[in-house]
Each structure stands twice: as structure tokens, then as C-alpha cells.
Design goal:
With 177 residues, this protein is an alpha+beta fold. It has a single domain (6-170), classed as Aminopeptidase (3-Layer(aba) Sandwich), CATH 3.40.630.30. The protein has six helices and seven strands, in the order E-H-H-E-E-E-H-E-H-E-E-H-H. A seven-stranded mixed sheet has the order 1-2-3-4-5-7-6, with helices on both faces. The radius of gyration is 16 Å and the shape is globular.
Length: 177
Amino acid sequence: MSHGLEVRALTLDDIKDLHALDQDSFAEPWSRSLWKLELSRLHRIYLGAFKGIQLVGFIGGLLAHTDFHITTVATKKPHRCSGVGSLLLLQMLKEVDDLFEGIETITLEVRASNKPAQGLYRKFGFAPVGLRRGYYQADNEDAIIMTLENLQQGTLADRLSEIELKLPTAVYGDAKE
């Protein structure tokens, strides 16, 4: 996509840029060694959004029995609220739907103060189901637990097709794939 973004699986070759974006985005970023470990583990998906060769966002998660848990999402500050997060979440959910049979729920935690992220997750059908008090250790902020539940065969795929039609063309560039 000449003017848009490419979403692809992150690899060990992306560690430097991945770690830098993680450090810029979070008060408690993961270490390089943890990133290397996570990228090599089974039942994990880590995707990056690239504008040319520049990493502008990432998303990752892991399979835990019948739940897929989204563990991390970040977008470079100049690209926030521009559709990068939507594109990453859409692609992640498609991969989960394609790769893991029997998924019943998809879960994540989000800062109680992060209203834009909560709005993004709601757009995809996530709903708040609980609260983890003091979850973020750096500042003791609470996390809202959000879940996409009751995922039967085809339900998620249909929902994602509808959402994809609503994504801004600017995110994709000249053409949606």
C-alpha cells in the first residue's frame, strides 16, 4: 500500500524499534529480553503497523485455553487517533479468528483514564466486565477489564467485516485489502 500502512507479524529483526516504541508509550515497558522471549513463544501473536519502514504501532496477545488475552497495544504519538489502533485491532482479531478454534472470549485491560482506547475497544464490541484496582504499578491506576464474549463460529468474522467497511480509507491508503 503506497500511502497507507502495512500490518505484518513482528520478528526479532523489529526488536530495536519495538522496544523504542514500547519505552515511549508505557511507564513500565518490557525489556528487550522479554520481547525476544515473547516473539519466540507459541500461542502468541504480535503484529506491527508500518508506514514504509517505520514502526508506528503494535499489538500483541496470547492464547490462554479458550480466551485470547490482548496484552499490549501502542501507537506512536503522532499517529494516535488516526485509525492505526483500529487497523491493528482488526487484523489481530482476524488472526485470532483464523488461527485459534474454540475461542470463547477475547480479553484485555485498559487504563481507567484512557477514554480513546476504551472507545476503540467498544467499537469492536468489547464491554467492561470488571476492574483491577491499582493494576498499573507505576502510578497505581486502575485497569478496566474489557471482554468480547460468546464468540461462536462466524460471529466474529461477520462483526469484523462490518467494522472493516467503516475504517477510514486514509488508514489503508489507495485500496483496502
